[in-house]
Amino acid sequence: QVQLVESGGGLVQAGGSLRLSCVVSGGTFSRYTMGWFRQAPGKEREFVAVITRIGGSTTYADFVKGRFTISRDNAKNTVYLEINNLAPEDTAVYYCAARLVGSPWTGSMLYTRRDDYADWGQGTQVTVSS
Length: 130
Description:
By secondary structure, the protein is an all-beta fold. Helix content is 0%, strand content 48%. It contains no helices and eleven strands. The protein has strands at 3-7, 10-13, 18-25, 32-39, 46-51, 58-60, 68-73, 78-83, 92-100, 119-120, 124-129. The strands form two sheets. Strands 2, 4, 5, 6, 9, 10 and 11 form a seven-stranded mixed sheet that branches. A four-stranded antiparallel sheet has the order 1-3-8-7, with no helix packed on it. It starts with a strand and ends with a strand.
């Protein structure tokens, strides 16, 4: 079973930046599409970004507005989420998720849905103060 461990969260002032990391083990990293989701208190877990297996294509949620960048380093089995110009509304637990190549199709072709992913990390807390 693939394991995902996020890190890099913390407390940051509005306007600051963070780079979250997710290290993947227990599987061949290049076989996984990788996504980031976030969940704020009282809200549903929402899609943030996804990157294809070799990093050639990315998709972002509309709220990103150019502030977030997802990337991956297959040599390090790591996917990253860089968040710039943080705002208090970005406060949430951020989760990485993995989709194995060949997984059943859920109806999405962009992998923006929770049920596109079978494996999840424990999350890392991002808190943005105003």
